[in-house]
Amino acid sequence: MFDNLSEKLDKALHVLKGQGSITEVNVAETLKEVRRALLDADVNFKIAKEFTNKVKQDALGQNVLTSLQPGQLMVKLVKDELTQLMGGETAGINLSGAPSVILMSGLQGSGKTTFSGKLANYLKTKKSKNPLLVACDVYRPAAIDQLHVVGDQIGIEVFSDRGNNNPIDIAQKAIAHAKKNGFNVVIVDTAGRLAIDEVMMAEIENIHKAIQPEETLFVVDSMTGQDAVNTAKTFNDRLNFDGVILTKLDGDTRGGAAISIKSVVNKPIKFIGTGEKMEAIDVFHPSRMAERILGMGDVVSLVERAQEQFDEVEARKLQKKIAKNQFGFDDFLKQIQQVKKMGNMKDLIGMIPGAGKAMKDVDIDDDAFKGIEAIIHSMTPEERSQPTLINASRKKRIGKGSGTSVQEVNQLMKQFEQMSKMMKMMQGGGGRKMMQTMKGMQ
Fold it and tell me: Is CB count within 10 Å lower at the N or C end of the chain?
């Protein structure tokens, strides 16, 4: 996410991180590089210039030149200004209706149908809502089928009326169906349309007037950069939408849309899509995104994701097993499954301060655990519960059964042993002992 921009901003700010004297000249030089980095990320020239002027003004106002750590202070000023540029505050979603109607709008190929499913899944699993998906793309039969496939995947009902070519009528029938059947959120997926197509733009305007949604969201492919911002402006002039959804942020995104869309349309980014899975949806937090762009990581989001997968009952069971030395490979497998549910591996590593930069050229496969899982699945139930039983001949059989080598089996056994020891040390008062051991290693 924003790798190129992060790298260029890091280089631009590196000048001020040295021990040399800081002058108005090299502050100006640094900000010139910051502006160049923003322009390369497809941020509008006027916005990039205003951004750097504001940072310079703040920098001179806060005596960066005489600061003991001018480099750090400049990074903070850039981070604060990036946060403001992307909206400042986190924007919520209006779910005050009965039912709450959400109208999805956007261009063809922006990922609108898939994101409608992600949003429904998010509202169901995180907000305890009972959403209904509505197929209002009457021009593309495959779009109706696609929404039904998505709905089946996440266990959410899809309302469609095949043969009916009136999207207003379909949407109104769906809202009546929702009221009658206890759905408290209605997500209306409309046809993708080009901003220059007057007939289609008039149609979505009419749908909007007819159903009076609580939320109108504009879905945009973040990989289209400045074009996305211009399109958002055209749609906003017609629909006066409530917020933006940026999809495909896990791709080779330059970042221009995320950074400048708020200042152009004066509407907040509410959600972002960070992958292909139905769970790959995040609430957009401007300050956290600014920190990630500047390579500071995003520990808060990482902890939140971990907490979502945390099961207190399972954790207590695990604690008892560790205390009795009964932690086995089945338990290890469960831990892996929880980590996998947290999301894309490269995205998770990018949330660790400094790690994203260190790992930027490393290709992290989402199937990074595949070999480990294969080895564990090749063990007998007895071996999984009592790892000490695994001798040389058993390792050979496990390696053969999992399509791996004995060395890989040995490596996993060693990792498992280290993890077990660490968990044991964390039990009771052992945490203090572990801290002492770590201090002694420094």
Answer: C
